[in-house]
Amino acid sequence: MNKKIFTLLFLILVILGSLQAQTSAQTMQILNKAAAALNAKGGASANFSISGGNIGKSSGTITIKKNKFVAQSAQATIWYNGKTQWTYMKSSNEVNVTTPNEAKQAVMNPYAFVNIYKTGYNMSSTTQGNSYKIHLTAQNAKRPLKELYLLINKQTYVPSQVKVLQGKNWLTINITNFKKKKISDSAFSFNSKEYPSAEVIDLR
């Protein structure tokens, strides 16, 4: 009897492991297609709205090109050229220069997951209406971006929502009006000539 039970348990574990591997493979395929849609040659733009987390509510536009982005809202403009980030605050006329980690990038750029999902995350997917719902959890608890959910359109593979865990709170980013467009690389770096009176504070 015990041998039969152990055999049955072993078979169940094998089946569950196979299903998990299949789910991960399917999820990776969805994310690969989403990454391809976002990494359009030349770049893309979209509208966004943010709520929750530690930043309250905000909305604006975002322009992306591979791992670069520019986000504009009523309060601030953020440039990221793939290495350095400049944040211009309109209220203080200051520009903070930083080198953000992946968690901070995710707060500013709803498409940041494109650059991090391939390594170090457990993943699963379900369907929600006309979208895939993707769940990513970091395998390393010390990773800055520990957990996130994505809603990805089944037809276009463009994400419409990103939810990121910030401490114990969830930050929700909704994305609309995604359009492919050609954008110069220079658009993703702060141009001091356009803000001659701004105080630049280097926090790197």
UniProtKB/TrEMBL annotation:
Keyword list, A-Z: Lipoprotein, Signal
Keyword Signal recorded: yes
Record InterPro entries: LolA/LolB/LppX, OM_lipoprot_carrier_LolA-like
Taxonomic superkingdom: Bacteria
Pfam families tied to this protein: LolA_2 (PF16584)
Signal peptide: 1-21
Keyword set includes GTP-binding: no
UniProt protein name: LolA-like putative outer membrane lipoprotein chaperone
Protein species of origin: Prevotella sp. GTC17254
